[in-house]
Write a structure and sequence with these properties.
The structure holds two protein chains of two kinds. By secondary structure, chain A is an all-alpha fold. Chain A has 13 helices and no strands. Chain B is an all-alpha fold. Chain B has a domain at 72-323: Orthogonal Bundle (ABC transporter involved in vitamin B12 uptake, BtuC), CATH 1.10.3470. Chain B is built from 15 helices and two strands. In chain B, helix 4 runs antiparallel to helix 11. Chain B is globular. Classes of the chains: A mainly alpha, B mainly alpha. The interface between A and B is large, with 47 and 47 residues.
């Protein structure tokens, strides 16, 4: 086995790239769940974002427009979920699943003539001299822009949820929707906005996959990333900063097993490819084992249908 | 604007009407989709829903396909429906389907080339056990560690897909397959082959088992204490607890039933219609079965019809691919829309839609 190609710096850089799609999708889902809605359609919204972003980036030549389109696409498809769960009072688990099944199909339909194309290159930060400093330069100052943006989104979500009135109202809707309603807050409207934000973030994460990480369009390319994002929200105990920890941990495992595959480890590739999913299960088990703590962290009204009787 | 008004009792008429309404709405929306794709919508709908059954030139091939495709969907959906009633969400049936096929297939291949009538029943048993054990993982982790069964069962799908890959490139690779990642062909091994029982009907062993499962599920649900327990556990967990239902046992039974049925479906599929284990074996039946379960309103008889309808969309979708060259994915979109509409119109069962008059203060 040849480990000489594995330098710690390049490992960390590639783990950040591997983690970012999940990071962005997970922070969006965190806001949705904080408002009391469980949207299991992350996988579907991500893949819609992946293809919308890819198509627009290829057609316009601008990755930035691609990312915008991905957010719009993700939000648009999450709007179906919003209407169904908030106005038609459908079961959130079933509707989320429907969103995933529909999204996977719809993305394949949109993208069937886009396979095998290279998207336009996305820029990386390049500050003269500073980006060239050994170790610190590649670790901090020369990522692609979206990595910095993803961290800013996490900071923004943290600030919004814990330091603003809007965040307080959103959490109130998630903890006790009847009380929030009685206080005059528009529970349905808050939740729809949260769902749209979650959709936009999932779309953005998906586009990062198709425009930066891979970068290419293939059918079903999310390969469970949306579901892993859902697991990371549980791992993070619904706390924004811990999303980064969870996503980077997951990214690290992905990169490690990919490197082991490339280095020709004496383990069949299929077993190595299982590891990210197995680790996700183990992490879920560890985080949920303490029932009292787990139920303390989860929003109390998560997944419950709200219908104002008057 | 419109206003929702809760009905005093769920409407019985709507229970039957809503799936039909959902299908009609899907046909309309699907027609619009085909029109956008530049195809004649009426022709497309006819090819999908009518031609596979009644068009003389293709029906001799497509009609038998109906049972072949519907049988695994119905078998898996039946298992899922118990859990869904009790709010236990096994969405990893695809993984249990694969593990059933691998376990049962491995048992059969271990006996190759011995011929015996006992081999096939043993394989079916191994398939059911394989799926059952795979479903016991989320059940155990849920009971013991409170881990979310939705995420665990789904993660295990990807593990199962990779495990299948490891098996067909390793221990189960066919010695006569020129190193391709496939297992031995089951149709070259009579004792392990799940062939058609009556030529050109699509009727195989799995179809009979599916029909039996529908009947058993119906009796369980309507006339057995287990059906009552599942229904109360879903509608009111607290009430279920007071009436002596152990939630942990309900979790284990619901996941176990669905895993066992999915595993058995996988075994019947791999030994018959698919013919061999390969990396192309997973076709997504485990996911489509979720749609079937809901379209059938989690009711065994409903699931029977829903499975046949969903099989029709698969077969008709293939025809439409051939004749109209619509992309393969459009049928997946079609099935996804069906689930959306089914969930949406479900509101008519327990609510009335009224035109709301502005209230005067």
């Amino acid at each position: 086995m040849d480990f000489s190609a594995l330098s710690p710096v390049s490992l960390i850089v590639s783990l950040m790239v591997a983690a970012t799609p999940i990071l962005i999708a997970a922070i969006g889902e965190l806001v949705v769940e904080k408002s009391g809605v469980l949207n299991l359609g992350v996988e579907g919204m991500m893949i819609i974002g992946a293809i919308c972003g890819f198509i627009v980036a290829v057609e316009t030549g601008s990755p930035w427009l691609g990312f915008l389109a991905a957010m719009a696409g993700g939000a648009a498809i999450s709007f179906i979920f919003a209407i169904l769960t908030q106005y038609m009072l459908t079961n959130q688990v079933a509707t989320g699943l429907a969103l995933t099944l529909f999204g996977l199909g719809f993305a394949a339909l949109l993208g069937h003539s886009y396979a095998g194309i290279k998207p336009p290159k996305f820029g990386t930060l390049d500050i003269p001299f500073i980006s060239d400093i050994p170790v610190i330069g590649p670790l901090i100052f020369s990522h692609d822009y979206m990595i910095y943006i993803s961290l800013m989104i996490v900071a923004g979500v943290w600030y919004f949820l814990t330091r603003t009135r809007g965040g307080l109202v959103l959490r109130a809707a998630g903890e006790n929707h009847d009380a929030a309603h009685a206080l005059g807050y528009k529970v349905i409207r808050i939740r729809i906005m949260a769902i749209l934000f979650g959709g936009a973030m999932a779309g953005l994460g998906g586009a990062y996959l198709s425009l930066v990480r891979v970068p290419q369009w293939t059918e079903g390319m999310t390969a469970g990333a949306g579901w892993i994002a859902l697991a990371i929200v549980v791992f993070a105990s619904w706390k924004p900063w811990r999303i980064i920890l969870g996503a980077y941990l997951f990214g690290g495992i992905t990169v490690l097993q990919l490197n082991l595959q490339a280095a020709g480890a004496n383990i069949p590739v299929a077993y190595l490819s299982m590891t990210p999913y197995l680790v996700t299960i183990i992490v879920l088990v560890i985080m949920s084992a303490d029932k009292k703590r787990a139920s303390l962290n989860a929003p109390a009204c998560l997944g419950r249908i709200f219908h104002a009787s008057n | 604007m419109f206003k929702l008004e809760r009905r005093p009792n769920p409407s019985k008429a709507m229970v039957i009407m809503t799936p039909i309404l959902a299908v009609v709405l899907t046909m309309i929306a699907g027609g619009i989709l085909f029109a956008i794709l530049g195809k004649n919508p009426f022709e497309a709908i006819r090819i999908i829903f009518w031609d596979p059954l009644f068009n003389d030139t293709v029906a001799s091939y497509t009609r038998p396909q109906l049972l072949i495709k519907a049988s695994p969907l119905i078998m898996i959906a039946l298992g899922l429906s118990f859990g869904y009633r009790a709010n236990i969400w096994n969405i990893g049936a695809e993984g249990q389907f694969i593990m059933g096929a691998v376990a049962g297939g491995a048992v059969g291949l271990a006996f190759y080339p011995t011929e015996s009538v006992l081999i096939f029943p043993l394989m079916v048993l191994a398939g059911a056990v394989g799926g059952f054990l795979w479903a016991m993982i989320p059940a155990f982790l849920k009971i013991k560690f409170n881990a979310n069964e939705i995420l665990v069962s789904l993660m295990l799908v990807y593990v199962a897909i990779n495990f299948l890959g490891a098996m067909v490139t390793g221990p189960l690779r066919s010695p006569v397959g020129m190193n391709f990642p496939v297992s031995r062909n089951f149709n070259e091994y009579p004792s392990a082959y799940n062939g058609e029982m009556i030529a050109n009907t699509g009727l195989h062993m799995g179809v009979l088992v599916t029909l039996a499962a529908v009947i058993v599920a119906y009796i369980l649900l309507k006339h057995h204490i287990f059906g009552f327990q599942v229904r109360t556990a879903g509608q009111s967990p607290r009430a279920a607890k007071f009436s002596g239902v152990n939630p942990n046992i309900t979790i284990a039974i619901c996941l176990g039933i669905s895993g066992g049925l999915a595993g058995m479906a996988g075994l019947f599929e791999v030994t018959g219609p698919a013919g061999k284990l390969s990396t192309n074996f997973p076709l997504g039946y485990g996911f489509t079965a979720i749609i079937v379960a809901f379209l059938g309103r989690l009711n065994p008889i409903g699931i029977l019809f829903a499975g046949l309808l969903m099989a029709l969309t698969y077969i008709g979708g293939e025809l439409a691919q051939f004749q109209l060259s619509v992309p393969a994915a459009s049928i997946q979109v079609f099935q996804g829309m069906l689930l959306f509409f089914m969930l949406a119109v479900d509101i008519l069962v327990s609510f009335r839609i009224r035109l709301a008059s502005r209230e005067v203060a």
